[in-house]
Queue: 2 jobs
Job 1
Amino acid sequence: MSSQDIPEENLPHEQAAAHGAAGGGTAVTPHGAGSADPFADPGLPAHKPRIQDIDEAAAKRSERTVAFLFTLSMLATVGFIACYVIFPIDKIVYIFPFGHVSALNFSLGLTLGIALFCIGAGAVHWARTLMSDAEVADDRHPIEASPEVKAQVMADWRAGNEESGFGRRKLIRNTMFGAMALVPLSGVVLLRDLGPLPEKKLRSTLWAKGKQLINMNTNEPLRPEDITVGSLVFASPEGLDPHAHDWQIQMGKAALMLVRIKPEDIKDKRELDWSHDGIVAFSKVCTHVGCPISLYEQQTHHVLCPCHQSTFDLSDGARVIFGPAGHPLPQLKIGVNAEGNLEALGDFEEPVGAAFWERG
């Protein structure tokens, strides 16, 4: 709607003129005709004191309410830590109306939400009922404050501190400090989600002395006659359950490949000593970034990693002859048990897989 569409009696200067005529005062003429601004600042309404300003009993009730909220926040933080310790990560419970949920996630979210909400609610209630609510208008001033303004700011700060009752109301102050000191502890216990310490788990696999080599295709123990010259066979350690929750983790370390090489073609003495009748066993996990090795060239006895083309010579201690891998493939010492099945004579002597921080 344009100004031409507004009835003249509703325009500011017409309303002011009518008001002046009715009240016997001086009429305000249109802006620009030597008159006062029709949009003058009306000022602030008169301050109305709150019940807490005139009744100390009401102020004490508000103080106890704020302290209760801060104390409830402290209890919720303690509950957060307790839930983190008590509930197992895989426990599922039914909670109406959410249905089946993780007991750990639900309890952590509930307790942490209460802890943070109570701190915020306590601070808001404190400000609305006990701190000064007088409105103060302040004119705009240059960005750089003058010494007088700085002195005024410090005076206002001291006055605000005095009006907040922070020094006098020790119950609020102490419970607030307690709530804000305990809440960060909820973040400390979350460090547990980084996982358990690896300890020596990365340096060992499921291979051990007496563990039979199981054919990954048939799930049967491997015998020397099952492996012919030029063939490539993959094996896993005896007792590894493919349905176990950590099967992939264990296989990622224990995966084994076996080839049969004529003993006279084996160049490395230790490789020959750790073999059985020309059957050598090496880790299937590439020492570059941990890809599975599966490409074997029987004439040269080279194996190739399909990810970045690292190439290892299985007739010479699986040393690297091409590509980015920095270490040879670890070898597993093998033999034959009383039943005629191939078995491990120990674990790998060095960590398998990617460089493992230079195997330090």
Note: Residues 181 and 231 are 66 Å apart (CA to CA).
Job 2
Amino acid sequence: MEAVLEIAGLQKTYRSRKGVRRALDGFDMVVEAGQVHGFLGPNGSGKTTTLRTLLGLIRPNGGRMAILGREVPEHLPAVAGQVGAIVESPQFFGNFTAWDTLSLLADAGGVRRQRVEAVLELVGLRDRGKDRVRTYSLGMKQRLAVASALLKEPKLLILDEPANGLDPGGIREMRTLMRTLSESGMTVLLSSHILGEIQLICDSVTIIAAGKRVATGSVADVLASHASSSVRVRLEPGIDLLGAAEILRAKGAQVDLGTDFFTVGNANNPAQITRILAESQIYVSELTPASADLESVFLELTGTAPVDGQNRQVDQVAAAGWGQ
């Protein structure tokens, strides 16, 4: 497939009294045409820095970037009309209506006024388009931001946390909209912390941690490369779960207790579980492989999984770049 977005060896450093922080340290990413591509990373990992650099808002220290086959930032004016973007929290004038806001943006961008009605319909604001933005909830303002990014009918749509403030119904509507746009030929780069949604909606993902790419590929391939050897075990009713878990632990199994089941994390040979328990007259009613999900893979790759007895601080992993 043709690459709509290419980033290679991207570097960005910041200097302060604390030293030098490498926000981006040779970061790479490729987004192919017509895909919904998830861009994932913990707070402070370099996601927003990447997007701001790509859009010419920050000057990089090194590396190469291209949008629609044109090198940026030098050719950004030539491709800007084909890119729609929301980066961080968008701000609007509270006394303007959504219609006023989008009409002004349409006039400034040379977009026909009829497009305003179309994007208000797309994002579900048709009936609130004449209300002042100051009366909008956070989720409604987010819908307005997405509408503004869609005004130009872009070939590449870049969205940073588009589900911020949306209720469950709104999140589902946003998911449907992203798929519809992709099916129409638009390429969507989607940054989000709602990993379950990313797994449902995206064709491919790139995961960044401490300014470096730690995984990329189709969602299926990324999950398959971190396939779990864990199995979920349920026993016959009335059997003591804790007692069964202790029997397996004594044989070297890594067991985590659930409410009515337990998980064995190092079950390379699940038949051993049934054999060991049967020797104690304990019989298994269900033995199910535990498939990896995007959240567990993300936590493993970025080193941000919670640790019992510890309070991980914001940017703890990314902050390792200071003073290096």
Note: The radius of gyration is 24 Å.
